[in-house]
Design goal:
The protein is mainly beta. It has two helices and 19 strands. The longest helix is centred in the middle third of the chain and has 8 residues, at 181-188. The radius of gyration is 25 Å and the shape is globular. The N and C termini lie far apart (50 Å). 20% of the residues are buried.
Length: 294
Amino acid sequence: MITRLIGRRTAAQQRNHALSGLSVPPGAGLLSCRVLDPVNEPVVRGEFTVSDSSGRKIVSGETDPFGTIVAMVPFGEYRLAISADSFTPYRGNVYVTDGGDSGSLGDITLQIAPSLPLPAPGEWEIEPAHSRIGFIARHIGLARVHGRFDNFAGAIRIGDTMDQSAMHVVIGAASIDTSVQMRDDHLRSADFLDVANYPTLEFYSDRITHRGGNNWAITGALTLHGVTRTITLEAQYLGIGNGMEGETRAAVRATTELHREDYTVNWQSMLARGIAVVGSSIKIEMDIQIVPKS
């Protein structure tokens, strides 16, 4: 798709234009559009990127509550990419020039992304060799510490429909690994996971809800440090494939955020300037592959 956008306009055009309140410098123009779904509702927080002809990113951002994108760029040729959960991405070529009758791409309608085939009903299990359960924690208010659990197992029952499905995952608390032995020993101690008294973390869910496209919400009970709380994993289903030996497998990526105080993991130490050594929020990131249970 090729679209021409106006750069500078006459005074009358500026007064009548919806974006006339913006001051456009010489040699630049406004790239604008409204992003809608197939029933003409605005797509909120869709991500967009404007790149130049060599592929270098010029500007990026999100659609506003009305689905609107506005970007001020120098005259030239650009590539506009728009993506949003559950929709097929949009890509188009755009020319921003000093001329024309309109300064807008108008309405861009995103199409619903086709859903990938789901795993067959039956008993499945996590395949540890190709799965990862990791986390990210804030350190001294600056850096991020990355870690993982090396010992885990999970059973998944796929029902005739996904709302009839369930899963149970068990994680060995002592298998925590941040690549620093002293830090890992501290995390295993009573200050944090207290693995001597709470050797496992467990998650059980029988509420799997379709978010649209290939996005799902997995809501269940997480037991950590002897405390059980309800959490929701935001999951992206990646589809079904075959391994090197021809075995069927399916893959999913999921994230959530935990607050360690919710699980009475309250150890705290502050720097002299009042910054916590370890942040309260822990981001969980999982890449999981499942195979039919043997």
